[in-house]
Amino acid sequence: MKILHNVINGKLEAVQNDRESTERFRVSNPASGELVTEFSSSSPEAIETAVSDALKAFETWSRTTCKARAHILFNFRALCLNKYKEELIALIMVENGKHKTDATASLLKGLETVEYALSPNLSSGYIQEVSTGITCQDRRDPVGVLVSICPFNFPAMVPMWTVPIAIACGNCVIIKPSEKVPFTITRMVEIMLEAGLPSGVVSVIHGGRSVVSRLITHPGVSAVTFVGSTPVAEIVYNTAVSSGKRAICLGGAKNHLVVMPDADFDQSATDILNSFAGSAGQRCMAASVLVLCGKGSDKVLEPLIAKAKAVKPGQTGSGEIGPVIDQTAVDRITRYIDNSESKHGACVLVDGRTWTNRKSNRAGFWVGPTIIQHPMDSADPALVDEIFGPVISVIKVDKLQDAITRINESQFGNAACIYTTCGQAADFFTRSVHVGMMGVNVGVPVPREPFSFGGTKRSKFGIGDITGDGLVEFCTIRRKITTKWGAPRGGDFVSRNFTG
Predict the structure, then answer these.
(1) 480 within 8 A of 130, measured Cβ to Cβ
(2) 3-class secondary structure, 438
(3) CB 114 within 8 A of CB 88
(4) Which CATH number fits domain 255-440: 3.40.50.1950, 3.60.15.10, 3.40.50.720, 3.40.309.10?
(5) 5-251+459-482: which CATH architecture?
(6) Nearest 5°: CA angle at 345, between 344 and 349?
(7) Where does 42-174 have alpha helices with state H?
(8) How far is the C-alpha of 188 from the C-alpha of 100, rounded, in Å?
(9) 295 phi/psi in degrees, rounded to 5
(10) What gap in Å lies between CA 11 and CA 202, rounded to an integer?
(11) Over the Cα atoms of the chain, what is R_g?
(12) For the whole model, what pTM was predicted?
């Protein structure tokens, strides 16, 4: 088995493997089911040391020039792209199960955030003469030590949403990776140290609930970011804020895709498949509900069904998708499909249950693309809950307003998309849906820097967004300075002779 390490004060420290611990974790390769490692939560002493070292490092790092910080990030990006790219892709595939194409793309998208953080002017403020002789200016100072709690679905990309920008602005960061994918970001922090990052600026602490609780309530921590499920996001946010921290916590989603009768059906079908089945549906931007709006919109189903049935299980070949994260995920996903079919009168148009280890001899944790058509008046939980797998529900409505109403009634407000060739319909849709991120003929409408990532309603807790300029605002304090200079002493300043 692999040995897992914390990164504390620039050093690798083996994570404890206490078999008597109540917080004990197993990491398995999702594609094969093979055990990768076992570990237990880090000790309170390790957490205390990590925070203490981060506070000490902050004293120097916060005064380091923006240009010097950017130079280290440039070195890190170059190492990830040139020296360690294939190693990092392989790590993502082993611990998360991503298809190689998805693993590569997620790494590169994470490094795009590093590119954004390279700007020496990232944390610059404004200056303006607001009245005669009076100037106002502000500057962005780092908040201090930031804790980044990361999910399993993007082991490289999601930590990179926070870490490069936070440290470029002068903060220090302690990362708590998902216990399901602990290796990728640990290796990336090692590479940061190789790139010249001073000890203590970025640390990694592994573990579960007890580690999260100690970190987000520690008096030395100033800010918390979280990406994960809505129930946990709400708990982390409330706990952090009640402990005096600033926090931004992203939760779950139930994203709707609306197909209009004038859509390009073949192109839309390809995009819909990529949205709900890409990354095995394990992303908060994945499509969950396909809304067929108006007569003729159901023509998208024929190409969509054909494309979904053509997908194969695998991690390297064209037209393949990888496994889901573990057996718990398989059981949860298939339970929703079973209940839709047996209890709520739904019709399973494409059945991904045939991929599971219960239906085949395939090792690992697999669920294929699944398309479920529901009666319009269905009270099926599959239509409202976040399933987090390669499953899309199909419903029909008569009017665009009906689709918008359904989206706006959802507890989630992460993303929504419309497929149409009509600009007026697209404009009405984007002005009417109450979500944070919208797509027009784009089923995974992830904004890129400087734009930031975040939803509304129960998809996000806190003010602002993660990554981009939203995170710059989150992890800095605006210091405001107002200056007034009166007339100089000694008469006419301009014509005065200062040589004698």
Answers:
(1) no
(2) strand
(3) no
(4) 3.40.309.10
(5) 3-Layer(aba) Sandwich (3.40)
(6) 115
(7) 44-61, 66-78, 85-96, 100-117, 157-168
(8) 18
(9) -65, 130
(10) 11
(11) 25
(12) 0.94
Per-residue pLDDT of the chain (500 residues; tens, 9 = 90+): 789 999 999 999 999 888 888 899 999 999 999 999 999 999 999 999 999 999 999 999 999 999 999 999 999 999 999 999 999 999 999 999 999 999 999 999 999 999 999 987 777 778 898 888 899 999 899 999 999 999 999 999 999 999 999 999 999 999 999 999 999 999 999 999 999 999 999 999 999 999 999 999 999 999 999 999 999 999 999 999 999 999 999 999 999 999 999 999 999 999 999 999 999 999 999 999 999 999 999 999 999 999 999 999 999 999 999 999 999 999 999 999 999 999 999 999 999 999 998 888 899 999 999 999 999 878 999 999 999 999 999 999 999 999 999 999 999 999 999 999 999 999 999 999 999 999 999 999 999 999 999 999 999 999 999 999 999 999 999 999 999 987 666 666 666 666 65
SS3 state of residue 25 = strand
The residue whose two tokens read 């870490």 is: 163
What's the token pair of residue 277?
């089945």
Q: Output the CA–CA distances (angstroms, integers) from residue 135 to 141, 477, 480, in the order listed.
A: 19, 19, 11
Task: Please report the DSSP string for 417-456 in residue order.
Answer: EEE-S-HHHHHHHHHH---SEEEES-SS----TTS-B--E
Kindly list the distances between the CA atom of residue 226 and the CA atoms of 317, 389, 397, in Å, as whole numbers in the listed order.
33, 21, 36
Q: Please pick, among 284, 293, 417, 475, the residue that the annotation labels catalytic.
A: 284
DSSP SS3 for 57:
helix
- Residue type at 72? I
294 vs 350: CA distance, rounded Å: 23
Residues 49 and 55: their CA atoms lie apart, in Å, by: 10
Nearest CA-CA partner of 288 in 406, 427, 451: 406
Residue pair 357/365 in contact (Cβ under 8 Å)? The answer is yes
DSSP state of 261: T
Give me the residues paired with residue 139 across strands: 479
Domain spans, the chain: 5-251+459-482, 255-440
User: 204 with 186: CB under 8 angstroms?
Assistant: yes
Is residue 284 annotated as part of the catalytic site, yes or no?
Answer: yes
d(CA 223, CA 7): 20
* Token code pair at residue 434: 């109450």
The neighbouring-strand residues paired with 15 are none
Give the dihedral of Cα atoms 50, 55, 60, 63; nearest 10 deg: 130
Rounded distance between C-alpha atoms, residue 262 and residue 423, angstroms: 11
Residue in the block written with tokens 């990362």: 175
